[in-house]
Design a protein that fits this description.
heterotrimer; A mainly alpha (311); B alpha/beta (285); C mainly alpha (358); B: 285 residues; Rossmann fold; 2 domains; four-stranded antiparallel sheet; 38% helix; globular; C: 358 residues; mainly alpha; two-stranded antiparallel sheet
Amino acid sequence: MEIVRAVLVAPFADMVANPAFLAEVLIGGIAAGLMYSLVALGFVLIFKASGVFNFAQGALVLFSALTLVGLMERGVPVWLALGLTMAVMVALAFAIERVVLRPLVNQEAIILFMATIGLNFFLEGFGEMVWGANVKKLDVGIPDTTFVVRGVLVNRLELTAAVTAAVLVTVLAVFFQRTRIGRALRAVADDHEAALSIGIPLKTIWVVVWSVSGLVALAAGVMWGAKSGVQFSLSLIALKALPVLILGGFTSVPGAIVGGLIIGVGEKLGEVYWGPLVGGAIENWFAYVLALMFLFFRPQGLFGEKIIERV
Amino acid sequence: MSRQPGAGTLRPLRQAVESTAAPVGGRPHETPLLEVDRISVRFGAVHALTEVSLDVRRGEILAIIGPNGAGKTTLLNVISGFYHPHEGRILFEGRDRTRLRAPDVAALGLARTFQNVALFRGMTVLDNIMTGRLLRMHGSFLWEALYWGPARRQELEHRAVVERIIDFLEIQAIRKTPAGRLPYGLQKRVELARALAAEPTLLLLDEPMAGMNVEEKEDMCRFILDVNDEFGTTIALIEHDMSVVMDISDRVAVLDYGRKIAEGPPDVVRADPAVIHAYLGVAHE
Amino acid sequence: MIYREAGQFKTSYASDQAIFPIVQDRWVAGLVLVTAILVPPLVANEYWLQAILIPFLVYALAAIGLNLLTGYAGQLSLGTGGFMAVGAYSAFKLTTAFPRVSVLLVFLASGVIAAAVGLVFGLPSLRIKGFYLAVATLASQFFLIWLFNKVPWFVNYASSGTITAPNRAVLGVLVTGPNATARARYLVALGLVAVFALVAKNLVRGRIGRSWMAIRDRDIAAEIIGVRPLRTKLLAFGISSFYCGVAGAELVFLFLGSAETLAFDINQSFLVLFMVIIGGVGSILGSFLGSAFIILVPILLTNTPHWLGIRMPVALQKELELMVFGGLIILFLIVEPHGLARLWQVTKEKLRLWPFPY
C-alpha cells in the first residue's frame, strides 16, 4: 500500500506543490529532449535516404566535436575552425561512401548496420588517436549561465541549443518534403536499385546525405560539448538517441522532434520524481523502457510508416 | 494438353502418405471443403475484397482467375488466416474458422505456395521441404538436444517421407543446394514440395507456373494433376495462363476489382459475357 | 588429392545426416578434441592457458549462445552482456548460499536463471522486429547492469562491489577460486563448451533449428506454414540466454576470478556480436573461429610492436585496437559477410579439388 502511494500519488503531489520547480524540470527536459532530437535527426536523415541504420552517428558527433576543439586549441579562430570542421565532415562523408557504403551497396540492412558498428569503433579510435583522449572544454561564446523568467530559472546555453535544434529540424523537415532532392532521397531510401534505374545518382545522394548528417552531428557535438565538455562519452549520447528513434519512428523528421521531447521530458521527470524511490541513476535505462512501452502499442513508432506486411 | 493420371513413380509416394483418394472432379452434393461466405477485406481506403463468396468442393481443382489487382492473392491470404476479414465468415469442413490465426489454419490441413516464392533462402532444399513437416513433428527437447532416441527416429522417418516427395517432383539433384541459389522454376517446384510435405487436405497455389517456359509448365501441370488424382488433395490455384486453367481445372472462379463475377465449369465461365468484358477482352474462341 | 570423398556413399539417411558425414572430417574432429584435452594441460604455459585458451573457450560459449539467437533465429540482440551478468551473479549468489553444491550444478542453475530472464526480455520480440528489437535488447542490457550495480544484495553487501569466485572443487580438484590451477580451469571450460556445442549442433540440425531459420528467413511464410512465432522466438531467447548465462558464470569463475558490472557492459555485448559476425553468422564452428579471432587480435596488437622492438604507449595501443577492430569488421563484411566459417568452407571445397582447378 505504501509502495502504491509512493509511486502513484506522492510524485504527482510533489509536482503540484512546487510548480516553479516543476517548470524548471520541464524546461530542462525540453532542452535535453531537443538536443536528443538533434542527434536522432542525424540517424533519421541517413536512414530515410539510404536505408542504413547508422550506428556510428555517435562517433560522428564525437569526431566532429573533437575536430572543432582540436583546431581551436591550436589557435584557430572559432569561425574558421567551424568552417574547417564542416569541410572535414564532408570529406569524411566522401570517405565513408567510398570505403564502406559502395562495396556493400546491395547487401541486407543488417550487414550495413553491422558495418556502421565497425565504423563507430574505428572513428572512436581514430578521433582519439589524432586529437588525444583528455576531456576538452568547448567555448562557443555562449555563457553557461542562467537567468530568471517569472520565477523560473532558465539556462542560456540550453536555450540556445534548444532554439538551434528547433531551427535545424524545421529546415530539414521542409527540405525533405518540398524539394526535388528531398524526394530523390526518399526514393533512394525506399529501394536502391529502383532509384538507380530511374537515374538517381546514388553515390552523390549518399555523399550529400552523410555530409548533412555530419553537419547535424557537428551541431549536436557543439551543443553537447559546450555543456559537458568534449570527451569519449559523447559517443554514448547516440545510445540515448535510440529510444527517441523508437518513439518517433526511424523515418520521420517530426518524429525525431516529438520523440526527443517526450524522452527528454519523461526522463527528467522520471529521474527527479521517481528516481529517489529506487536509488537514483535510472536515466540509464528509463528512456529505453519508456520507448519500449510505446512500441507495444505502436510497433512502428508514433510517426513511422505503418508496416503492412505482404506475402 | 489433357488430363492424364500419373505414372508408376507415384506408388511409393502414395504408400508414404495416408490419404483417401477422392473421385476426380469433386463431389458437388456434400458439404464443401471450404466455404468463403461474403468476405470483405479493406486496407485503409482500398477495398481489396467485397462480399466475395465461393466454395471449394472436396477433391476438385478450382482455378481462381482475374485481372491483376483483382484481389486473388488477398483471398488466398484470408483463407490462410494471414489477414482477417472485416466481414464475412470462412468455414472449413463445415466449421467456422474465420478468427483463426495462420499457424492454426495450417494445422487444420491447409498448405500453400506464394506468388513471390517464399522459400527459406538460408536453408538447403532438403531443409526447406522438411519445414513442411514441422506440424507433424512432436518435440521432445531433451531427446532433440541429444539427437538420439525418439528425436532421431522421428527425423529419419520424416526424412524418408520428404525424400519420396523429392523423387515425385524430380528434384533429387538439388537436394543439398541452398534454396537461394536455385533458378526461379526450380524454386517454385521446391515450394510445391514444401507444401506437399505437410500432407494437406487443401492445397492453395498462388501462380505456381508464373515465369516458367512451356516444358516447365507441362511438368508442373503433371505434378498438380497427379497430386489431385492420387491423393485426392483438393487444390485451389491462382493462375494467369488460360490454357492451363481450361485444361486442368474442374471449376473456375473469376474475381474483378475485389468482387466475384463468375463461378462454374471452365466452358461456362469462358463464355460468360461479364468475364469476357472484364478479363478476356475480345471474344475468345 | 588431400581430401577426397570418392568412394564414400551414404547408404542411409542417418549417415547422410551425421554432423561429420565425410570420414576424414570425423578423424580430424576427433583428433582436435583429443589434442585439446591432452596437449595444453601438458605443454602450454600459464600465460597461454590463462590469457588465451581459457577466455577463448568461455567466449566461444557466449558466441554460440548469441549465434543461436541472432544467427539462427534472426533476432538481433545487443543484450548479451546483461545475460552474462545474470549468469555470473546468479552463480555467485548460489554458490555462496549453498557452498556444498557442485559448482557444475551451480553453473547449470545459473544458466537456467539467465534463461528465465531471457524469456522475459524476449517477450517484446513478438511485436517488434529488426532494429527496433535490437534497441529493445539494449533496454535489457542497461537495466540489468543498473540492477546489479544498485542492489548490494547481489554482491553479498561487499563494499568493493565486486563478486569473487570462491574455492570450489570437482572430484577433489580445485577448479575455481584463487587456488585453482589454470589447467583445471581450462579442462572444465573445455568440457563445458564441448558438451554445449554438441547440444547446440543437435538442436540446429533438427526441428528446432529449422523453425528458427524459417523465422529468420521469412517469418510471415513461416507462420503460414505453421511455425508459431512467439514460441519459437521465446525458445531462442531462452536457450541463448542459458548459454550466455553459463558463459558469464564461467567468465568470473574460470577466467577472471573476480569481476564487477564493468565486465558485462555494452562493450561485452559488442565484443560477442563481433565474434558472431566475423566467425560466421549461423554457424557453430564460426562461433569458435570468431572467438579465437577476437581474443587473438588484441594479443597480437599488444605484442607485435614489442616483438618488432618498437615502443608504443598504452593509450595508442588501445586506439589502434579500436581502429583495427572496426576496420576488420568492415573488411569482413565487404569481403565475406558470412565470416570465417564460410572462408573455411570455401577452403575445404578448394582442398577437395586441389591440385585440379575444377
